[in-house]
Amino acid sequence: ASCVQHRLVVRDASSLQLLQLYTCLDQIQYIEWSSDSLFILCALYKRGIVQVWSLEQPAWHCRIDEGSAGLVASCWSPDGRHILNTTEFHLRITVWSLCTKSVSYIKYPKACQQGVVFTKDGRYMAVAERRDCKDFISIFVCSNWQLLRHFDTETQDLCGIEWAPNGCVLAAWDTCLEYKVLLYSLDGRLLSSFRAYEWPLGVKAIAWSPSSQFLAIGSFDEKVRILNHVTWKKITELDHPATIASKKTIVYKEVEKSPTVDTERLSFPPTRELGSSLFSTQSKYDISQVPVSLQYVKPVADRANPKVGVGMLAFSADNCFLATKNDNIPNAVWIWDMRKLKLSVVLEQLGTIQCFQWDPCQPRLAVCTGTSRVYLWSPAGCVVVQVPGEGDFQIVSLSWHSSGDSMVLLSKDNFCVCYLEREEV
Q: What CATH fold (topology level) applies to the domain 110-239?
């Protein structure tokens, strides 16, 4: 699904054939599929309205109006039959049922980085709250929206919460001014508290491994700390130095090459599409000899949100690899072998890393840098893929299909779908 101004366009994912076209009341700011792909919501934040469309019954539609309370966020519940709307100033979360048309309210949600999270099986929801200048977490049962647990957290300014994939442990982390990661059980017991250091800026991002065995914590001190699920103690620190010295690490460096095409020898004038592919600058990967010095950017200390520390990290679907980005070294992706807890590969790009994401089915990483190229890494090696097309298609984000057979590449104004051929065994 994609939106153009006030229109919602639904296409077949394999053929891109147009299936449905819906017209909303105003410009669409956000869209989201239900878990079973039978419904899709369109949030019109400026009007405080959510419109819901059915794929099975195109004539059916639903409109939710928050009125004077306003609207700043909207999402589906895991069952795909309830919609959670957050009102302006985070006064409350309204839970609307599409089946019974009933409404439930959750008071005092906190405006933070990640304040509403569901377990992977869809049974429970955790909400970060702020009451009387203190932080709390409420856990709800998603089947009837009844409160299961409500407890306060030992945080100064709770920044975010995240469930482990098995749904047994909830991680909560404090503001960047206070290094603190808290781990709670489903019944609200504090299992462990982790603090790496005291005074400098603290936690920047966290990521659970798919098996729930590891919790990776990216920090402002340019390190990733890995906690284990048995004792919740640190098992290793992963450094991100500007110089790669280990001979066991493979450094792939992107290099540009200008095409050498003799236009006079062409028996026909090239078309615009062929011309753009013939004469555009191409790139490839070279393996660099260690030691390698990476491009290091010194952060500006007197500005808010300094570009420093590990702010992007993600585990592969098979738990074997961890990909990270250190904001001080914006052109590099670090790939760690979690079986050996060692740095395996560094991808040194020509542009700043905008986004990376693992294939949901196999250890294959897709990277984009704001150019018309997408980069793929797997244990077999690296490849640069030039996206064909007219004009300058700058990829700023990407998203894998759940099957791993294709991915959506997004620019500021357009998108394209990249289909990957399966290897024949």
A: Methylamine Dehydrogenase; Chain H (2.130.10)
